[in-house]
Amino acid sequence: MESSINMFAENLRYLREKKGLSQKQLGAKMYVSHSTIARWENGTRLPDAAMILRLSKFLGTDANMLMQLAAQSDETPNIIMVDDSSIVLSEGLAVMEEVMPNAAITGFIWPQEAIEFARANRVELAILDIEMGKSSGLDLCRTLHEINPTTNVVFLTAYADYSLDAWKTEASGFILKPMTPEGIREQLKKLRYPLRGR
After folding, report:
1. How many CB atoms within 10 Å of residue 157?
2. Residue 198, SS3 per DSSP
3. Is the pLDDT reported for residue 163 higher than 80?
4. Do residues 107 and 31 lie in contact, with contact meaning Cβ atoms separated by under 8 Å?
5. SS3 of 172, please?
6. CATH number attached to the domain at 78-188
7. 3-state SS class at 155
8. Which CATH architecture is the domain 2-69 placed in?
9. In the chain, which ranges are E strands?
10. CA angle 83, 79, 140 (to 5 degrees)
11. Whole-angstrom Cα distance, residue 157 to residue 115?
12. CA 185 to chain CA centroid, nearest Å
């Protein structure tokens, strides 16, 4: 197992450098922090199947090869963040990475991608923007709960007026933008369902 992890790490580093990208640049493209890329490349953490597919497509390599080299840890909670602003998403992911360094945190701009990820992976915490263009975080929350009723949902918005609508769902919490480490830590105390590894 250890050799597979090392081979995955070496392959990822080689593919990234072949593209001429820094860890920070690849992280920005994948909507994960550069420290997450660093952990993948030093073998202390492995991406999940959906992220491997995303990486392989972007890096122009065979997804099956990467899949064979990686395995998902049962103790790593999957956390997603969905926001249609790439700036807000990048900043939020950095905050989440600071608060939960041992979690597998994945960002999405498109709600449908988050839904597909949730169907393929057990999502334990979803941080959702309420207003996403034509899409609604409230609708996304309902879909995620249809897929897995024990997914904790925390809404993120710049408008406090939405809080009443948010509480009509099965959400665990509500955060006003911008996200802060303190705000996330406070919400983690209020989750309806425990996270793996905590």
Report:
1. 20
2. coil
3. no
4. yes
5. coil
6. 3.40.50.2300
7. strand
8. Orthogonal Bundle (1.10)
9. 78-82, 104-108, 123-129, 131-132, 135-136, 152-157, 173-176
10. 45
11. 20
12. 17
Delimiting residues of CATH 3.40.50.2300 domain(s) in the chain:
78-188
The per-residue pLDDT for range 115-138, each reduced to its tens digit, is: 999 998 889 999 999 888 788 888
Kindly report, as residue ranges, where domains of CATH 1.10.260.40 are found in the chain.
2-69
Report the percentage of the chain scoring pLDDT > 90: 46
> Where do we find the tokens 């945190």?
105
Specify whether the CB–CB gap between 150 and 172 falls below 8 A. no
Instruction: Please calculate the CA angle 46-108-179 and round it to the nearest 5 degrees.
Output: 95
Residues 6 or more apart whose CB falls under 8 angstroms from that of 161 comprise none
Separation of alpha carbons 15 and 71, rounded Å: 19
Helix H or strand E encompassing 139: helix 137-147
CB 171 within 8 A of CB 138: no
CA distance 110 to 192: 25
Distance CA 131, CA 165 (A): 12
